[in-house]
Amino acid sequence: MRRLSVRSALAAAAALAVIVAAGLRPIEVSAGPPTFTSAFGGQPAAPASWRAADWDVTVHSRDRETWRQLDPMAAHHGADCGPAPATHAVSRYEDAVFQCRDHLMTAINAGGYGMIYLTPTQQLDFSAQAGGTGHLRFDLSTQRASVRDWVDLWLTPYDDNLQLALDEWIPDGSGLPRRGLHVVMDTFFPESGPAQTIFKAFVIRDFAVTELPLATTKGYESVLEPSATRREVFELQLSRTRVRFGLPERGLWWIDAPTPDLGWDQAVVQLGHHSYNPTKLCDPPRLAPHHVQACGPNTWHWNNIVLFPARPFTVVHADQRDAGPGADAAARAPQPAELRFQRAAPARAHLRFAGIGANLELSVDGGETWRPAELQARSKDPAPEDHFKSYWTPVPAGTRAVLVRGAPWSGGDWLVRDVSLWSPTSDVEVAGVSVIRRPAALVLFDRLGDALRRILPWVLGPSRSVTKPE
């Protein structure tokens, strides 16, 4: 039998001490709250375009010449899925989110503005009934190729979700949701030396923004070697009255702040990747820890996304990514576009899409009657004509097809894209969803794991890697 080393024994004892000190009571044998996990397993022979039943995906590029094809870029992973620095060409919308080597990548290049949002069909539940604190964890690469290419998180109440949520200062998108939390990568520039990657957090109440105080301006470059092939564990801890975000394995927390009661306790989660002319304002020496020779678009590597506790909702995808004359240069006929769905709309469903054009209208009865498509509540109201807008229109239960029509705007034809049906109900089982109600014993095991993660760096010294290299 293998003996425990002195260090291991100390680590175990220290972790148990943390649990005792935390005052955890004996746990009754009962079911714990549900957990959502997504690990993106699979090893395709070549980068594989990724869409999943339990995720909604939005890929957006602002400039009209990129509506059918994205600005090209060299995305990480070779044509055979070999790891970085190998690359392959990406310019199709379908390829901006792809899978290789048991994890997921987002890759977008936009000379104007572009963004990708990944939304699991789960809400993070931090209600009192679910324990009062929600945890969102994900593994993410840390190498950057430009300060104008970044990631973020949006958390919003279900009814306030905004497909193209974006800071108001950016000349694109729908602006801010009515209520929400925005956690966004930022860059701190010291007086000398390399730039530091930090994260900031903002609470949104009735479209007004309050920035939470930073706990530190230390970038993750100060505790790790930025890498495209190793992924670090990031974690958000959220209650109605406190926000905490950072790198738990590294003991680095940028946000650890109280907030007045949010007034909501369940949230749709959007994981974002943004590209804003990434070659502009390039200063490679400032990005020396990232081994940048010339600035450009980045590929971000994601894995092991966990929401705990989680509350499922239903998303039904359309059978095509976009529709309308703006989607096809050959489509100039006046008839409306038809969107069909993988199954019938459940109760309390809304049609959700990003669209541009004048007088967008919908029909759910084959064209007998028409109604205007309804905009989601947003801070940019009215939004500029040349911005895609976020639409959110109720549709009857049982709807399997929707007709859409519109008129050109001053810059071109109308277009809708990234269309789906959303419902807060979860009466349909979605293939591929990994939602489990964890036994209470496993909840205790999770707490033990959290304690070990806090103690091990102290006992064993700094961690050399958090996730396995590719």
Task: Give a verbal description of the structure.
This protein has 470 residues and is mainly beta. Helix content is 8%, strand content 39%. It contains two helices and 30 strands. Strands 1, 2, 6, 7, 10, 15, 16, 17, 19 and 30 form a ten-stranded antiparallel β-sheet that branches. Helix 1 packs across helix 2. The longest helix is centred in the C-terminal third of the chain and has 21 residues.
Provide the gyration radius in Å: 23 Å
- Report on the biggest sheet: 10 strands, antiparallel
Q: Flag low-confidence runs.
A: 1-9, 15-30, 428-447, 450-465
Structural class: mainly beta
Please give the oligomerization state of what you see. Answer: single chain
Residues in helices, as a percent range? under 10%
State the distance separating the first and last CA atoms: 32 Å
Principal-axis shape equals: globular
Strand content: 35-45%
What's the overall average pLDDT, rounded?
Answer: 87
In DSSP terms (H or I, runs of 4 or more residues), the helix count works out at 2
Task: Kindly state the number of beta strands.
Answer: 30
